[in-house]
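User: Please run a holo structure prediction.
Assistant: Happy to. Please share the sequence and the ligand.
User: Here you go; the ligand is adenosine monophosphate.
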Amino acid sequence: MTDLRLFNSLTRKLEPFQPVHPGEARVYSCGPTVYNYQHIGNMRAYVFADTLGRTLQFKGYRLTHVINITDVGHLTSDADAGEDKMEKMAAQAGKSAWDIARFYQEDFERDLARLNVQKKAHPRATEYVEAMIEWGRKIAPKHCYELDSGLYFDVTTVADYGKLARAVTEDGEGRIETVEGKRNAADFAIWRKTPPGETRQMEWDSPWGRGAPGWHLECSVMGGALLGFPFDIHTGGIDHREIHHPNEIAQNQAYCCTNGLSDPQNSGAKIWMHNNFLVERSGKMSKSSGEFLRLQLLIDKGYHPLAYRMLCLQAHYRSELEFSWEGLQAALVRLKRLSRPIAELTSYAGNATPVAAEEFSDKLLQSFDESISQDLKTPQALTFFEALALNGAKSVLLNNPDYPEIVEAICAYRLRVLEEMDRVLGLDILGLSAEELRIRPKAATITEPEIEAILAQRKEARAAKDFATSDRLRDELAGQGVEVMDGDPLGWDWKLG
Ligand code: AMP
Ligand code: ZN
C-alpha cells in the first residue's frame, strides 16, 4: 500500500499521515448550525469529510470521527454581536429553539444517510455548556478580559495567532462587527452575556453572567473531550480557515499547548484540512432564496442522491466545484453506466469463491490506492474504479472461453475489488439497480407499472407493424411526462422529465 499524504492547511504542504495513536485515526469535522436546512454546499463538506474517513479506514486505521451539532449561540454572521440564528428562526416559526434544533438535526442526519455518509458521533453543543464554562474558567486569567457584553479572548496572548488564515488582519477581521471596548479587532467572544432586559430561550449561568458560549468555543471543547489533544485531523469548509479555525486554535493553545505553531500539533490537531466551496451562479445556494438547493430538492426533481455524491467525487476537494443541473445529470448517467456491467459480473459470479488474485484487477486497485493516497485524488481514483467496473465480465469471458468455473471465480474477485474501492467512494454501486437510478420527479403521477403496461402494448403494436398505434401510445406517454428512449445504449428505456 502507498503511504497516505494529506494537504495540511496549517503548513500549506502535503504531509505524510502519521497517527498520534498507532493504528488509529481521530478526526473532527465542524458540523452544521441547525437553525435551517442544509444546502448542498454544506453537504459537500460532509461528503469530503466522509471520504477522508473512509480513506483512513481503507488504509487500515481504526477511525473515530466526530461531526458536532451547533444547536446554540450562533449568530447571523461570524460576528460576536447581532441576532442569534436559532432564536430568530424559532421566533419566526413560533416554536422553541430546542425544537427547531432537533428538527433540523434530524433532517441533516437524514441527508447524511442518503449520501452514504457513515455514522459518526454527533455531539450537541448544548450538552457541553458546563464543559465550556470550565474551559473558560481555566483560560480566562491569562488570556481573556471581560466587557459589558461578555468575556473576550485576547489574541495577542498566544503565539502565531492567525497563522492558518495567513492574511488575518485584513480580509478576515474586516467581517467582524466591532464590539465596544475590544482590545484587538480579532479578539472574539468566549462568553456572550444576555443584554440587560432581554431573555433568551437558550441561556446559562456562568461566572461572567447569564448568557451563552461564543461559537468557536464548542469545537475546541468537544474536540478535546472526545478525541484528546492533539488529535489527528480537523476538517471544515474553506471559510473556516479564516476565522473559526484560527480562533479554535488560539483557544487550544491557551488551554493546553501554549507554544507556537511551527509544530502543528500545538494547534490541537496535527493536520487541518479544508474543502473548497460548491458554487452556483444564480444564488440558489443562499438559504434566504425561495427554492434553495437542498438535497431534498434534487430528489424531488427525480435525481438519486448518490448522483450528488458522484458529482462531489468528480472534483478534487480543494477545487471549487460549480453546480448545474446538467452536471448533476451527467454524474447520474456516469453512475448508471456502471450498473449494467456490474449486474453482469454479479450474475456470472454466482456464489463462487473469488480466485486469489487477478493481475488486471490488482493493477487497477493499486492505481486506485495511489490516487486516493495522494491527498484524496478522487477524480483519478474514479477512473480506475470505472475501468474495472465497465469491463464487467468482458475480458474474463474472452480469456477463458472454455472454463466456466474460472470465469465465475474471477468475476467474484472483480466484485470483491470493486467493493473494496467503493468502501472509499461510498457510491453503494454494488447495491444500486439501474431502475433506482431512473430520473423520477416527485410531481409525476403516473406509476411505473402503468408506464410498463403501456410500453408493453406499444411493443406489441410495433411487432405487428402497427405504427399508428405505437405512435399514439408514445404520445400518450409524452403527455404524462414520460419520454420513451428507443434503442438507448444505456438502457434507460424511458425517463420522466
Ligand atoms: P455552517 O452550517 O454554515 O457552519 O456550514 C457547515 C459546513 O459547510 C462548514 O464546514 C462550512 O465551511 C461548509 N460550507 C458552507 N458553505 C459551503 C459551500 N458552498 N460549499 C462547500 N462547503 C460549504
Ligand atoms: Zn467548528
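Residues 30, 219, 244 surround zinc ion (ligand 2) (CB under 6 Å).
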